[in-house]
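Dissemination and training. As part of the outreach component of the grant, students in the summer workshop were shown how a complex can be specified as a set of sequence lines and then modelled as a single object. The example used during the hands-on session is reproduced here so that future cohorts can follow it. Participants entered these lines:
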Amino acid sequence: MRKQGVIGKESRLRLLEAATQEFALNGFYQAKISSIVARAGVTQPAFYLYFESKEAAFAELIDGFRNGLIQVVRDSHIEAGKNRDDLKEAVVESLGQIYRYLGENPALTRIGLYQSAESVRIKAEIAGLMEQNLIAEQQAGYYRHDLDTVFFAEALLAIVERLTLIKLLPGHETPSKLARITQDLFFYGILDTKHRE
Amino acid sequence: MRKQGVIGKESRLRLLEAATQEFALNGFYQAKISSIVARAGVTQPAFYLYFESKEAAFAELIDGFRNGLIQVVRDSHIEAGKNRDDLKEAVVESLGQIYRYLGENPALTRIGLYQSAESVRIKAEIAGLMEQNLIAEQQAGYYRHDLDTVFFAEALLAIVERLTLIKLLPGHETPSKLARITQDLFFYGILDTKHRE
Amino acid sequence: MRKQGVIGKESRLRLLEAATQEFALNGFYQAKISSIVARAGVTQPAFYLYFESKEAAFAELIDGFRNGLIQVVRDSHIEAGKNRDDLKEAVVESLGQIYRYLGENPALTRIGLYQSAESVRIKAEIAGLMEQNLIAEQQAGYYRHDLDTVFFAEALLAIVERLTLIKLLPGHETPSKLARITQDLFFYGILDTKHRE
Amino acid sequence: MRKQGVIGKESRLRLLEAATQEFALNGFYQAKISSIVARAGVTQPAFYLYFESKEAAFAELIDGFRNGLIQVVRDSHIEAGKNRDDLKEAVVESLGQIYRYLGENPALTRIGLYQSAESVRIKAEIAGLMEQNLIAEQQAGYYRHDLDTVFFAEALLAIVERLTLIKLLPGHETPSKLARITQDLFFYGILDTKHRE
DNA sequence: AATGAATGAGAGTTCATTCAT
DNA sequence: GATGAATGAACTCTCATTCAT
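and obtained this result:
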């Protein structure tokens, strides 16, 4: 794996893209190098020109996804000092960016959120980051003070994860719509207001 | 696979239990027949005395789990005519039974909810059942009428799924506690009441 | 690698014998499992029924050879109290047993003395054992006191090793003849007696 | 492989040196072209600019070593007409030159004496040359007339070979010391003189 | 009811070598 | 004079499954 020119870079990219598809479709263990290289239009040894092993290629994909997602989640923090309507819009915007990131990388999302042992760790990490945001936002007075932020964060992640899987990735809903729905559910709860009184 | 006497039944059960553990631990593809029979204390051909194939054994486990879960979710329907406090308790009780079922079958739950291609179908089915309950309960006047029951059901399932994975199965929380937390989040939402006004 | 009946034991032996031939002929790295199993008349996976890996099979052969040789060399120690003629016969007998062991296991000898990284270690070990014998024999007054036993042992091993390779294994000489030649060379040196004076 | 200028010559030399090290360390089959070119700081195809194949490069090294060694052994012939002390010194000097040649080319020696199928042929050749010398020396009256020169030559080579491997190449002994030890062993044999009578 | 023995099919990986530039 | 890129051919090892007993 020495210096690469432009052709090598291209081959590497083709392999990476092929690997993404194959891993997303079949998961790590069922994914076959032979399928990957077939998709990429090269022979098997070419794969090892650019990646140390099946594991290494997978790790590279996972890492890219993880880093991107971490960035997006970090950036989704909402600052203090907003009024109620602005808060709502900000939350929708933040969730929208997360859904957008996932929607724009459907295969990677499949790998990173659903197809690997690492996905468990990644989701734990993301839940942690989300909780940090939520804590700050709670202190900003946006959320109930009796709210357990750990569970809140896990619940938020859970919903994002599931709606992504069944609505976003198949293309049934847009990121914005999902963001609005998620925000609505969390903001107002489910109780009928008349019944509530 | 002819009719079996009592000894055969025992071996079959031991194999089934061993398979449950192995599948839960490693997933379908990584599970090895050799590990299963080692756990069960029999030889490899014995496995094929009781099961047609790896797939068949897996399907049998999945089916048992699925049927049990469907039953529990069906039974978790809440009748009309309750006042607010009774509703709350009824919801907690219903969720509690679901969490209890999952918590009592940890290995099967791992297989049925997280370890297989079937889990996607199972969860879709469960979400559907949950939605039916929710629709009836919404019509009973318990929930907001503008609530989209599809998303509500998916969100509910998502949270149950995730809290089960990270809190229930590792033994960090009891089913009752999780039921209460889930109910609280959904009933009241997250907004600070002072901020709310 | 579970319990084996008589058929299994036979297959194992056939594989072991085939492996011996193949390793002797080609050395560890050039030896192919496919050749071994072909010789043994089984399929490739059968090899792994009886051996953990190529390495493990090789190690088993090496170990057997090494242990046998160590035994023979240990037993070749000559007790004190012999007169000159008896000593000579005893030495010839001892060397004869070593040559005989090597000659009776030609393939193993090839592996253990010439075909592996282990052969270096084995020979070092054998040289050490030989030296222990020589030290005792030197103290019994059989050999010159100014003789460096380390070098003597190494030289003895060297000659045995080489004569085995070029005379014994190809069948050009018998163990007894080689034993006598080796003894003669060492006992009397090379100098012409007339010239010696 | 056309004619080369000065730059090409340099690369070729670097490759040859790198190949020597690699072959000495790992033997022919385990040596990798990729390692050789890495050591030499060139790319893989460059190797084939200067050598037809792995085999060809190896053969070139072997040939160099073989020719050098043949020369040294030829030159180590001792003329007739020496008295006993001069003979001793001449033998020590001759052996010293052989050990010196081997010690000065440690990597090549590893390849030529221990690491190849060719080493068998080379040693046979060397033994032959040594025997020719010994025959002449025997006829000069230096050695016993009942001495079998074939075995004597093989034994001599065996000892040189082994002491080189375990004492010279690791740097534990100098060529001169080894020459003296070798000569001593052969000249006087091992018997205790008192016991001898 | 169970087992010892065996296998077909296929996986990931390695390496000497070559071609176009 | 040298290189980036690629490959054919091989090899070790794994696993679900079956057959004869």
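DSSP finds ten helices and no strands in chain A. Students were then asked to discuss how this feature might be tested experimentally.
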